[in-house]
Specification:
This protein is of the alpha+beta class. It folds into two domains: 35 residues, no CATH class; 71 residues, no CATH class. Helix content is 43%, strand content 13%. The chain contains five helices and three strands; from the N terminus they run αβααββαα. It has a three-stranded mixed β-sheet with strand order 1-3-2.
């Protein structure tokens, strides 16, 4: 699911802008009322800020979070621009193993 179904274009430096909050309010917030996921997976800082605006992104990655009382996993974006982050956080490999077990359990693949 896209963060807001709105493409806010790039800024002058070529970076993605944050979608306007009105897009989130109009689309994603309503979608969350209709779906009943067992697990949410949030990818990237921008998406994490929408759901957890006051929390530290790195801390969100290394703990289990909740949206609508449903388990929510926050992951760093897999962009090549994040290579430095992955190198600075080798403990993420352990977190990936935890997440894999969670997903297997939700999908009943264990």
């Amino acid at each position: 699911m896209d963060l807001s179904h709105c493409y806010p274009v790039k800024d002058k430096k070529g970076n993605d802008r944050m979608p306007p909050k009105i897009c989130y309010e109009k689309w994603l917030k309503k979608e969350l009322q209709y779906i009943n996921n067992e697990l949410y997976i949030i990818v990237g800082t921008k998406a994490a800020r929408v759901f957890f605006p006051k929390e530290n992104f790195n801390e969100l990655i290394f703990k289990n979070n909740y949206i609508n009382d449903k388990l929510t996993i926050v992951l760093p974006h897999l962009s090549p621009l994040n290579i430095k982050w992955f190198k600075e956080h080798p403990e993420f490999d352990n977190r990936i193993e935890e997440i894999r077990k969670i997903i297997y359990h939700v999908l009943e693949l264990s």
